[in-house]
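We close this part of the discussion by returning to an individual protein. Part of our work consisted of pairing the sequence of a single chain with a tokenised description of its backbone. The amino acid sequence and the backbone structure tokens for this protein are reproduced below.
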Amino acid sequence: MQLTIGDIAEEATIVSPFNKCEDVYAIFNEHASLEGIVVCTDQHAVGLVMKTHFYQKLSTKYGFDLFMKRTVDLVMNKKPLVVEYSLPIAEAGALAMKRNLDHLYDYVIVIKQDRLYGIVSIKNLLIKLAEVQVQVARYSNPLTGLPGNYAIEETLQEILAEENFSVLYVDIDTFKVFNDSYGFKEGDELIRATADIICDIVLTTCNHPSFVGHIGGDDFIAVLPNYNYDRICRSIISRFDQLVRKVYSEDEIKKGYVTAISRKGKLEKFPLVSISIAVITNINMSFVTVKQLSKEAAKVKKRCKTIPKSVFLTMEDCWEEVMPFVTE
């Protein structure tokens, strides 16, 4: 699962809006490394006092005498950046960098269930973003930029501990024939377009942090911390089948097949590319290891391959041999 802003949040130093500026001054003096203080009412963040801004106000003509005996709400930033715990750090970083120059280096305030959770300094945010970017570059697939096998293994290990999860194993059927017929460039474009479809649907449909990875070649994986796979699978299949109509000629679409040299060296008819999705959940089966998960997925994928059109199947479909969802 991707790192969220809440994962790197630190405990915040807080005061009430009714605390005097002299209280804030004393806190900053006592804690020299402290950069800011969150102003709270009943654990709800209502403002932020950064040390640099606070000292600037005190250093103005008569500022010290004007503010020290007055409440902190007169000097606080009433509209600080406040984000939810679950926001990915990349998105939090983008929001932080869009702030006015005067507040560019202010704390990011993190809340969880509408209550103050902590703060993240810009320094720590940038360091963590850099670490994530290095990790992504090291372990991502060079063709699609999606997380590769290292991140996939790590994510699957994590999801096994979740109460509810769905894992979608996605691959393109008869891709080798397409690659041999149209060339590697067109094959790479098809893989990239498929990756875009899966990411767009999974990451925008799921309301909880989800994951999409590229196992390699024409194989992908999506991990959901819930059982909302049905709509996602149908949408992936619909979008992929629309894509297929753009990569073949009208004649090939009409016939529904292409002719190509088989592994036996003979000219044969092959179906147009389609997409298969094997869905593994822990609704009716518990998994202890990733190996168990992969073994069950292999069975479902094998069954998917017997259907010459885009399809998604669950473990239960294979157990019960019910009619799967296929395209018209």
